[in-house]
Write a structure and sequence with these properties.
binds manganese (II) ion; eleven-stranded mixed β-sheet; single chain; binds pseudouridine-5'-monophosphate; globular; 14 helices; alpha/beta; 11 strands
């Protein structure tokens, strides 16, 4: 698999070296840069998140599709290119990978696209903000993020802050169960965090409190030969957690607007993220940045623990 795909895969030398030495590596996605945050906060955040990973002893590997190849580990100019809006950037999930690469357009990978790339490169831990999920109203639209099926088929652990309340969280948990994907609440009393808030009112099937516990589970899943991934859901740091009704109202407004404007398909999530940022006058963006960094820290600790185990 890796040899077959190697001409399409460009792993940055520092990432390749870390992997060859059995050192911890954390994959990072790029849709959050190109479609999840406005410029210039997006590129600043991308750099800061990489720095958080490095500070915690792991090597960051941001993934994107550049000039017909999957890049794992990006240069500074590539981050800027993905962020500044000067050039069209395709949002690339599994179904878009071959089209984006063969047409040599610039592509930002979603959670599903990034998982594929990470697995090809041999990276097992991946940090992001939130995963996609089952959209509200999916019983009629069938809008279920490809992130969920990817988690069912690709052995990469995604460290996130749960899924946003723009989604249908109970159905998202059901779908992940069907896909055989364990969802681990990281601390939080076992409650599934809901992105801007630590509270969803839903219990995750599993609760773990330390990086070592998660790393042992990742290791055991691999030993079992399970070809599926897992979700580690980390609550947003308390000082950024939203408790008020402002974010809920913004989410409801954004959802109504999306319906009226008939926003659908791959445009749906970026539209909702942008409107929630606008409606909260940037407050949601501040929270988003804080939780991504926190997830990068936890992912680095898990990757470090895992690397100590396999060597
Ligand atoms: N949720 C967020 N921020 C994001 C995304 C989701 O809070 O940036 C992005 C991720 O890249 C995720 C993608 O994989 O949106 C899911 O899109 P869709 O719902 O179209 O599958
Ligand atoms: Mn969708």
């Amino acid at each position: 698999m890796r040899a077959f795909a190697s001409s399409l895969l460009r792993v940055a030398p520092r990432v390749r070296e870390a992997l060859a030495n059995g050192e911890p590596v954390v994959a990072l996605e790029s849709t959050i840069i190109s479609h999840g945050m406005p410029y210039p906060q997006n590129v600043r955040t991308a750099r800061e998140v990489e720095a958080v990973v490095a500070e915690h002893g792991a090597t960051p590997a941001t993934v994107a599709l550049v000039d017909g190849r999957i890049h794992v580990g990006l240069a500074g100019e590539e981050l800027e290119r993905l962020a500044d809006g000067a050039e069209a950037v395709a949002k690339a999930s599994r179904r878009d990978m071959a089209a984006v690469l063969s047409r040599r357009v610039l592509g930002a990978t979603t959670v599903s696209g990034t998982m594929i790339a990470a697995h090809m490169a041999g990276i097992r831990i991946f940090a992001t903000g939130g995963i996609g999920g089952v959209h509200r109203g999916a019983e009629t639209t069938l809008d279920v993020s490809a992130d969920l099926t990817e988690l069912g088929r690709t052995p990469v652990t995604v460290v996130c802050a749960g899924a946003k309340a723009i989604l249908d969280l109970p159905r998202t948990l059901e779908y992940l169960e069907t896909q055989g994907v364990p969802v681990v609440a990281y601390g939080n009393g076992g409650e599934l965090p809901a992105f801007y808030t630590a509270r969803s009112g839903l219990m995750a099937p599993w609760c773990m409190d330390t990086p070592e516990q998660v790393a042992r589970m990742v290791r055991t899943s691999a030993d079992l030969g399970l070809q599926s991934g897992m979700v580690v859901a980390v609550p947003i740091p308390a000082e950024h957690a939203q408790t008020g009704a402002e974010f809920e109202r913004a989410i409801d407004t954004a959802l109504r607007e999306a319906e009226v404007q008939r926003v659908a398909g791959k445009e749906c999530t970026p539209f909702l993220l942008r409107r929630v940022t606008e409606l909260t006058r940037g407050a949601s963006l501040v929270a988003n940045i804080a939780l991504v960094k926190n997830n990068a820290r936890v992912a680095s600790q898990i990757a470090t623990s895992l690397a100590a185990m396999v060597s």
